[in-house]
Amino acid sequence: MFAFDSETCGLLHKALTYDAGTNNPSAEEETALTSEKNYIALLRGDWKRKFGEDEVVIVDKPLNVTGEIKEAMTEFRLLASSPGEEDSGPYSPAACSLVLCTPKTGRTHQIRRHAYSIGFPIIGDTQHGDSKINRWWRENRQLNRLFLHCLSLSLPPLSTFNDSRNKENIECTAPLLPELVAVLERKDMEDLWKIAREKDPRLTLEQYDERGGTYGRNFRKEISSTVE
Hints:
This protein is about 25% helix and about 25% strand.
């Protein structure tokens, strides 16, 4: 089934799973059919102050899910970080880190809870974050939402369901929302944004809508042809 986190933007972050004709698929089947999801998150604090040059940190921390403790693992990969404003000391409210998050399991609010557990809550997170920092970013950076975006989703190939279909994995990418890009394009964030885009070019993709109708990219074109 699908799972939604109403505060996260981007692609659906839990894909349909396939039961290969059995109620108890083998470990190999589960591995082959597992989707991979990548998220972009802006975290409070300068990553390098705690982790130095370690760009990858794996959090393997069980989480309580409706009263049951379940295994949970998330990989955090640093794209770029900023120490913030020099005149604010080592713990400037502007200090932040842009990271690529890859959950290895799918628990409720897993990324948000794991980020908080290592002392780097996601900026804008009202449930697992820092209210003072969130307020500062609202007032000074015009960030009015959770900065967590599902950037990419890799799904099993269509041949999983029908042997005659394409055997390549289905790769989906959702560009960052304009309101998130606007935060990263600010003058005081330009160095972080430049480094991050060089590390992951997918961040440079622009949003577009292939649909027709009122909200599609061809709407104006359709109006023009009708008028003529």
